[in-house]
Every structure is written in C-alpha cells, then in structure tokens.
Amino acid sequence: MHQFLRISAAAGFIFSALFMCSCGAVQKHSSANSNRPLVKPDIVAGRPKIIAFGDSLTAGFGLTENESYPYLLQQKLKTDGYDYEVVNAGISGDTSQGGVERIDWALGMDNVKILILELGANDLLRGIPVERMRSNLDQIITKAQSKGIKVLLCGMLAPPTMGQQYQRDYISTFPELADKHKTAFVPFILENIALKKELNQADGIHPNAEGEKIMTDNVYKALKPML
C-alpha cells in the first residue's frame, strides 16, 4: 500500500507539472515538429549503434548536449569498454504516434543493435486513449525486433486524476508489452528523481544535470545485460 501511494503521488506530481508548466511548450514543439526534416545525426559508419528513441526526457530538454542521458550513456559505455555509438533520437513533445511515424528512419541507420524506447508521457498529457498508445508502442517494438534489433522499453506512470481505469491501463501497458515481446524493461525511468526538487529543473518534471545522471543509471542497469 505504501508503495502504491508513493507511485500515485509521484505520478500525480509529474502530471500536474507537465500540465501547468509544459503544456504550452509541448504544443509548441508539436507544431514545430509536424514538418520537421528527419536529418540523421553525424555517425561513424560501421560501429554498432544504440538508438535512444523518445521525447524530451531523451532529447535532454533544457540541458546542454553533454548533460543529456544519451551522451552520459555513451561515456559509461566507453568507460566500461563497450564500443557502441549512442544516437540521440529524442524529440521534445513527441508522442507514441510521432514515434511510429519516424521509427523507420531511426531503424534505417547502419548497424543498429539496440533501441531504447522511451515514449508515452505526452500521450498521457494529451489524454490519448491507452489502447492507441499501446498499439503504437507495439508497432515500434515489432518493427525493431523484425530487424533483429533488441529493445529496452522504458515505463512511465499515470496519476489517479486521470481516472482509476485509465491509470491502471496506462501503467500496466509497459510491463505487458515487455512481457509480450520479451524485451528488457525499466519500470519507471524517473525512479529516484521524481518529487526531488534538487534533481529537477524549474518546471518540476525534466531532470536537471544531476537528475540526468540518475536517469542514465536507471537505463544502464537494464541495458548492460543486453550488451
């Protein structure tokens, strides 16, 4: 019960922060991204790649490139002797539908080995039906696995203010998809960051530079056994 209350409180805080502080920013990003050119980042041919695919949490909203979790993940891999190239394919404001629309571009890069999938927070913000989000994430995972690419799925939480049924369906979607496709799984990518003012930016939702380090650790714990 204590754990459930803690999770519900964290989810409620996240949703409130998103709605009050980020709604306008998300809409701005969404309209700007609708016609965005899909330009591949500078990459090194031949090196095995890990695609960090997601929204503002992946893109490193409000941070420098060197503070974003994909960059920090690259440094961890290098330190531990893994010769992978991490590609930051995060776009602020993106939804699971946006992910479906650009996944072929991401998977079309040379020598992709692992996809880290972090999407769904903006679906929650916009009240998109859970079944639609589930279908979109399912399509992304299926496309990746059909190419022999391993998937690490990152979960998110929903607040009780969305209604008990929506909350239950939303939260359960991520572990159910991980079980269905037998993917690696991070239950809550903001674990040990949410609700901690000292680890978040002024909007209360996006991790600051210190929070990004913890988020990187959350991802790396699940990623390392896949390498």
What is the overall shape?
Answer: globular
Query: Distance N terminus to C terminus?
Result: 36 Å
Q: Kindly name the structural category.
A: alpha/beta
Count of distinct structural domains: 1
Walk me through the structure.
With 227 residues, the protein is an alpha/beta fold. It has one domain (2-30, 45-226): SGNH hydrolase (Rossmann fold). Helix content is 50%, strand content 12%. The chain contains 8 helices and 5 strands, in the order H-E-H-H-E-H-E-H-H-E-H-E-H. The chain has helices at residues 2-33, 56-59, 69-79, 96-107, 121-125, 130-146, 164-181, 209-223; strands at 49-54, 85-90, 112-118, 150-154, 184-186. The chain has a 5-stranded parallel sheet, sandwiched between helices. Residues 1-6 and 16-41 have low confidence and may be disordered.
Question: What's this, in brief?
Answer:
The protein has 227 residues and is α/β, with parallel strands linked by helices.
Give the helices and strands, then pairings:
Layout: H1 2-33, E1 49-54, H2 56-59, H3 69-79, E2 85-90, H4 96-107, E3 112-118, H5 121-125, H6 130-146, E4 150-154, H7 164-181, E5 184-186, H8 209-223
Parallel strand pairs: 1-2, 1-3, 3-4, 4-5
Keywords:
five-stranded parallel sheet; Rossmann fold; 8 helices; 227 residues; alpha/beta
